Amino acid sequence: MGIGRAIGPRRAAVFLDRDGVLNRALVRDGRPHPPQTVAELELEPDALEALELLKQAGFVLLVASNQPDVARGTVRREVVDAIDAKLAEQLPIDDFLICFHDDGDGCDCRKPGAGLLFRGADRYGLDLKASFVIGDRWRDIAAGRAGGAATVFVDRGYDEPNPDPPADATVGSTLQAARWIVAHSPAPKIPALANLRVKIFADGADKAAIVALAANPLIRGFTTNPTLMNEAGIKDYERFARDLLAAITAYPVSLEVFADDNDEMLRQARKIATWGENVYVKIPVTNTKRETTAPVIRALTAAGTKVNVTAVMTPDQVRGACQALAGGAPACISVFAGRIADTGRDPIPIMAAALDILAPHPGIELIWASPREPLNIFHADSIGTHIITVTADLLAKLPLIGKDLDEYSLETVKMFARDAAKAGFAL
User: Fold this and answer.
1) Between the CA of residue 30 and those of 21, 156, 159, what are the distances in Å?
2) Contact 197, 381 (CB under 8 A)
3) How many domains does the chain have?
4) Which residues in the chain come in under a pLDDT of 50?
5) CA 138 to chain centre
6) CA nearest to 22, candidates 157, 107, 134
7) How far separated are the first and last CA of the chain, in Å rounded?
8) Rounded to an integer, what is the distance from CA 32 to the centroid of its chain?
9) Strand 279-284 vs strand 307-312: parallel, antiparallel, or unpaired?
């Protein structure tokens, strides 16, 4: 089946396996199987959103699928074509690349071979090194590697070997795969700052700087914490907070408790919440003894207090915080993506998983906390994160966004020359 559109040369594609990625696989004895009829076809619930996200990012979307049941005589080719046609009606797919052979046929298109990828590259003038493969089985990932594409494994928990070597990313859903790809695509992803969907909250404890930032249209809120306050030399917590809230009335402000006991946390939180209607009280996800603060969070949100659950780093922690916040006042969950990255882990799959967990709860927003570079703002925006907290040193770099690199290179050379002259170096 060919339903492709004319597409310019050297574009990037996402090659998607079909069963288990776009539509639900029929799992029997722990092994996935394709639908046998159009009536059995059922889309993965996030498939449309995932493909729309990829399409908006400019990717060619190609289904690359093994369908050996045709060679085995258990399904007619017309049935496979009918299922593909039904998928094409429901999803923004550019073309279907299907292998109908079995392992013993000696073809060059059956995955784990990369024949389907090469066929797509020839047909659409693609750069496979800039392309991606999404699959739910080891064959998909091996085919992507053989073709030179980056790979994303959607782990459905089948009773079969996982990819070895592993994929570039392992995620839990098709939408998470799409978000990872958009965030890691080599294609330019630098929209004007004014067009960002993610809300930028300034993170700091300098009142004068915060008041100045309140006039910046890019800033939509403020956060602080005891560490920042200590570094700023603040000794009177309440006085600082009340002075700040008197100056900042139009934006949300997150203020954190500093107790380590749940009862004392609750008392402090209730007091802090009375200081302003725009206050979000920050509650750490656990205390220092690893004891959950869910009872505190639950009591506060049920009473109408806006809560920001902080120091979160795992999907399980997001899930627990979400359960404690569900049905309560507006709230945020701060996932410390920067600290996750500090451990050598890619934070994008974790942030994408957090967005999936929060999806049924529109009153709870996800915060990308502790970013390490301005690029993280665009990472957060690309996957649909609601808020990102940005410190003063990163805010100072925002004027560099989109700067001409040749000009920046020249400025750097001039800086080296000036500093060498100031130092009086001589050889």
Assistant:
1) 16, 10, 5
2) yes
3) 2
4) 1-9
5) 23
6) 134
7) 71
8) 27
9) parallel
Q: For residues 360-374, b (16+ Cβ closer than 10 Å) or e, as one string?
A: ebeebbbbbbbbeeb
Residue 158: strand, helix, or coil: coil
What tokens does 220 get? 């939509």
- 239: exposed, middle or buried (C-beta count within 10 Å: 0-12, 13-18, 19+)? exposed
DSSP states of 223-246: E--HHHHHHTT---HHHHHHHHHH
Would you state the pLDDT for residue 3?
Answer: 33
> Which residues are CB-contacts of 111 (< 8 A; sequence separation ≥ 6)?
64, 66, 99, 139, 140, 142, 143
Q: What whole-number distance in Å separates Cα of residue 251 and Cα of residue 154? A: 39
**Phi-psi category of residue 58: left, alpha or beta, with phi > 0 → left and psi -120 to 50 → alpha:** left
Distance of CA 340 to the CA centre of its chain: 13
Instruction: Give me the numbers of helices (H) and strands (E) for the chain, helices first please.
Output: 17, 16
- pLDDT at position 186: 63
The Cα–Cα gap between 356 and 333 comes to 13
What's the pLDDT score for residue 11?
80
The residue written with tokens 């914490």 in the block is 225
What is each CA distance from 354 to 61, 149, 187, 385, 404, in whole angstroms? 25, 26, 25, 9, 35
Residue 425 lies in a domain: no
Same domain as 238, residue 116:
no
Q: Residue 239 has what pLDDT?
A: 96
Question: Is 138 found in the same domain as 42?
Answer: yes
Task: Calculate ∠ Cα 133-135-139, nearest 5°.
Answer: 95
Q: Which of 282, 397, 403, 422 is catalytic?
A: 282
**CA separation for the pair 21, 177 (Å, rounded):** 10
125 plus 240 within the same structural domain? no
Q: Are 32 and 25 in contact (CB under 8 A)?
A: yes
370: left (phi over 0), alpha (psi -120 to 50) or beta: left
**Single pTM value for the model:** 0.76
- Asked if residue 51 lies in contact with residue 92, where contact means CB atoms within 8 angstroms, the answer is yes
Distance CA 234, CA 37 (A): 68
For residue 363, the model assigns a pLDDT of: 97
Note if 282 is an active site residue: yes
The whole domain housing 200 covers 193-400
Domain end point (choices 184, 211, 245): 184
Domain boundary among 184, 218, 244: 184
The predicted structure's pLDDT at residue 125: 84
- Please name the residue that has the structure tokens 């603040």: 234
